[in-house]
Amino acid sequence: MSELIICEKPKVAEKVAKALSVSPTKNSYKRVPYYEMIKENGEKTIVVSAVGHLFSLKAKNKKDNRLYDVEWVPLYETDKSKKYVKNYIDAIKKFSKDADRFIHACDYDTEGTLIGYNALKYLCGNESIDKSFRMKFSALTKKDIIEAYSKAYPLKNDQSWADSGEARHVLDYLFGVNISKAMTDSVLKVTNRYVQLSAGRVQTPTLAILEEREKEIRDFVPEPFWVIKAKLKKGIIAEHKKGKIFDKKEAEKILENCKDKDALVTKITTRKSKKSLPVPFELGTLQSEAYAQFGFTPRKTQQLAQNLYVEGYTSYPRTSSQKLPENLGLSNILEQLSQNPKFSDKIQQLKEPLKPNEGKKTDEAHPAIHPTGTLPKELSADAQKIYDLITYRFISLFGEEAEMESIKVNLDIGGEEFNFSRQRISKEGWLALDPYQYRKVKNEEFPDIKEGEKTKAKVLSEEKETKPPARYNQASIIRELEKRGLGTKSTRANIVSILYTRKYVEGKQITVNELGQRMINTLNKYSKRITSEKMTREFEEDLEEIKNEKLTENTVVSEAKSELDSILNSIEDNRDNIGKELYSAYEQSRIVGECNCGGNLIIISSPKGGNFVGCSNYPDCKKTYSLPAGANVLKTTCEKCGLPLISYGKPRQRACLDFECANGGQKSTNDVVGKCPDCGNDLIKRMGRYGEFIGCTGFPKCRFTSSIADFEKSQKEEEAKE
Question: What is the pTM assigned to this prediction?
């Protein structure tokens, strides 16, 4: 008998093989590693892996007006950068031929279920599903893997999970491809210009939420107010009890009453309070905390946490649970963590019985994020930060409540009431176990002051103005998406990342740029259903109902097509207006400055890849400026020539868009050194931001460049051949 175990990633396949066998034999097929094990009964087991998704959706006929008829095809057919996936597909196909039994050992969520299900269905044959079993694990320790293998159950039990995962992909494809195509076609038919525009089932409502906040900020009218403060001894600052005072005359009257008056301490109120234990991390709170502590984007945190899981150091990160069941072996995990001196000091402070504090949120698939007890050997600096964040949080769950003490001091200054307050930790409790949380808590010195005491006071007025709502950052928009029921714990970080990639938003405090603003405004005007979070939320609920076997995939997909028909009809009915407005927004978004001829300097994509800056009056004006790979054009301008500055390189540096200006007026040497291998024009030496290089005189139509060293080497090789 032969058994094939399919894992999601190569590292997981290695861990599974080493957990199930003392000495698995490692081999490779087409550079794809696989592991072979022979059991005592002679049964052979092969462990092989995918590399995430092996298949993607594709329209069966791209000439259709509406691309509703889709099929799964190998990923390398739709993404040319994924050619390596073919070797993994070939490996699974090869080893499936002799297998009598299949084990699906991909991540236990809808995406992982779909990855393994598609591998079995399309590579091992439809009949393999009936011979397949599912391993369910939340950590990649030897204990967890062996237990998951021994309890593997028929894969058919998870059919609804596979259906839900497939339905999500189909919905995302149908909405993203068809709406993007409709917008792009609208521009093309009105302007005869091809502009690639992007929309998505969750992406566009997310952009609409960001634009809603942007509009609140734009429409906000600041209102002046005054704050009256009193400076006391030892740097104490007290504030008038009214806080913000919007009447200037009232503020002036208070100042007059307080002039040259001492402060009398009328009352001191002391209060004690408990600071409850934290709850375990789920993905959203881990992403928020990592952003607050280290400035990590949610996507980066998710990837670091995923890597820690694959290495076996922490549990599965894509969970919404705040529960830690006892069967995880919590005491054993703490014992293993104690082998690290950094954690042992904290763990020694814990008192029996060791029971963790838990939150309310649950997840049917996985527990809360926690360390497995396996201590890391070597981690990158960033991975170490996430591991420590998770581990200190886990340890602190077993601690005692912290206690806080606060005082509020009331003052009378010329008949006006002022007060100030202080807070300090009176009992460290669990705060002593988590250094990240300890430093977030106010721990202030209490002043030596008594009721009835008088002290000198200097009363001042500060004029301020009300501020608009704060912009979202990457962590807060993900929390907002969760609150509104949009996307999933696994997809939200990627959705936000796509908005940056599409150049609709920018900045750490997320600003929606003009292209993003005008796209949402145009869609709201002519087809508001596209931006509707209500529709997106309803489909999210439907996808959950598929998983819970209350709806079928076909029903939800059919409903989505009907919804799409309505949206696409509205775009077609308003095609001319939509095309004009979207093109205008696109053109405006590309403008980075003004050319000497009076035209606009715009960012242009080169047919051979990369971008450059050219004049909108081309061909009458042929002025161009090259852009280094990864460069961003800034809003600030050069003090010498007035052109925009650019940001480029690693580490990032700034320079003028005109490299001659940036290099002190140095021009290209213009020495002809040969003929361009791409177009036949002369090659000359040019001066760039990184020094001299070889460039084609046919620029910008021809983008051929070479370093001096590489060019001279190729010249010598040509001479040697002759």
Answer: 0.83
